[in-house]
Specification:
The complex is a heterodimer of chains A (about 220) and B (about 180). Chain A is built from eight helices and six strands. With about 220 residues, chain A is an alpha/beta fold. In chain A, α2 packs across α3 and α2 crosses α6. Chain B is an alpha/beta fold and about 180 residues long. Chain B has a domain of about 100 residues: Nucleotidyltransferase, domain 5. In chain B, strands 4-3-2-5-6 form a five-stranded mixed sheet, covered by helices on one side. The longest helix of chain B is centred in the N-terminal third of the chain and has 17 residues. Chain B is elongated, with a radius of gyration of 35 Å. The chains are: A alpha/beta (about 220), B alpha/beta (about 180). The interface between A and B is large, with 62 and 52 residues.
Chain lengths: ~220, ~180
């Protein structure tokens, strides 16, 4: 019997369409991406029904991790510079101009004033690996955070500053209360809590209002 | 994989007529796809898709003077206390001994019920987290305020008396 001849088929696959799609997705991601800002600690923040966007300019962010360590972050390098100069003067930190320049580049601070100069003396890689102990906020006097906020307030004076608080789900309430006290002692009573968005539960008052707004918006 | 098509070796033309080799225009795209997907993966991981939102919180100004403090009608007050292990306790009016146990699901009905039964201008919710409450609890209860459109609410420190009642309630319920 003659052997059945199997036609040798090419294994070649036309990948053009594949490439088209993959580059389309790639383009989308490149355009839609916004890099995660560098964060001192990982914080899993809770969700809320609020739909307001977090403001990005003139923001003073207090991050609290689940162990109650407190960090401050400011977006504007110029603001950081002026805050460092203020603190240097009022708190006698003994910072050199080089230290202040280093602070301009440091995205977040979570050390007591006593260790501040030491932190700034490190290079950026070292700063990242260092486990910062957090700014001391021991009681309702606001601790050292009070001074940070005071100087930030005077630096941002005249601008519409947003005071952001980002805390972990598991952070205990006393720490939050102390941080709020530090703000309140500076006569700041309006905060924005960083949260994840979630929809208002169906059938509730807020849900009804939003539905009505949608309805009137269409007309 | 880059294939060079070697088909058609001539022969149809007359002798001596050499046909130029036909080169395939097909390009092997495998490395390109690889690279493309590598970049996609990179961008997916480095991107923040869900933008965080900001929840407004306005705290009352601390004041020592009694005439500046906001008066709350006892009939319209609902006090919600937050304890450990996501515990929620509440009482109506000004008598903390009428403390009742609840949770984050049931508290919504309590708020709705109270809102319905009181005059809108008298209705006020007082939130008192104790030292064992977490940030998540606080945000969840503030969220309930916006979900149920409670116009007046305040977050204040828990009094020692209330805290004791709360702890006693927790104990009797085995929490």
């Amino acid at each position: 019997m003659p052997k059945a001849k199997i036609a040798k088929k090419s294994t070649w696959v036309d990948m053009t369409a594949f490439v088209d799609v993959s580059f389309l997705i790639l383009t989308f991601f490149i355009l839609a991406t916004k890099f995660k800002p560098e964060e001192p600690v990982e914080v899993k923040f809770p969700s809320s029904v609020s739909a307001d966007k977090v403001p990005e300019t003139d923001a003073f962010l207090v991050t609290i991790d689940k162990d109650g360590r407190v960090f401050v972050q400011m977006d504007d390098p110029n603001a950081r510079k002026s805050i460092a100069e203020n603190l240097n003067e009022t708190r006698k930190l003994g910072l050199t101009p080089a230290d202040i320049k280093a602070f301009t580049n440091a995205p977040s601070i979570g050390v007591p004033f006593a260790a501040f100069k030491q932190l700034l003396a490190m290079d950026q890689e070292q700063q990242k690996t260092l486990k910062q102990p957090g700014i001391p906020v021991p009681d309702s006097t606001g601790g050292e955070l009070y001074y940070w906020i005071r100087d930030a307030k005077s630096t941002y004076a005249g601008k519409k500053t947003s005071w952001l608080i980002k805390a972990d789900d598991a952070t205990k309430y006393p720490v939050i209360r102390n941080v709020l006290e530090a703000f309140k002692r500076n006569d700041i009573n309006k905060f924005q809590l960083v949260t994840k968005f979630r929809d208002a539960p169906v059938g509730t008052a807020l849900w009804n209002t939003r539905q009505n707004q949608l309805g009137t918006g269409k007309k | 994989m880059a294939a060079i098509d070697e088909g058609g070796g001539g022969g149809h033309k007359g002798p001596g007529v050499k046909k130029a080799k036909k080169l395939s225009t097909r390009v092997d795209m495998t490395p390109m796809v690889d690279l493309g997907f590598l970049l996609i993966t990179f961008f997916i991981f480095s991107t923040t898709m869900a933008q965080p939102t900001a929840m407004q919180l306005i705290m009352p100004k601390d004041t020592e003077k009694p005439e500046e403090q906001t008066k709350v009608k006892a009939s319209g007050a609902l006090t919600i206390m937050l304890g450990k292990n996501n515990g929620v306790y509440y009482y109506e009016g000004d008598d903390p001994t009428k403390i009742q146990i609840s949770d984050y699901k049931k508290i919504r009905d309590v708020i709705i019920e109270k809102k319905k039964n009181t005059k809108p201008e008298d209705f006020v919710v007082v939130i008192k987290p104790n030292d064992e409450a977490t940030y998540q609890n606080v945000v969840a209860i503030l969220d309930e305020m916006s979900i149920n459109e409670v116009k007046k609410f305040a977050m204040v420190n828990i009094s020692p008396q209330e805290n004791e009642l709360l702890l006693a309630t927790e104990k009797s319920n085995g929490i």
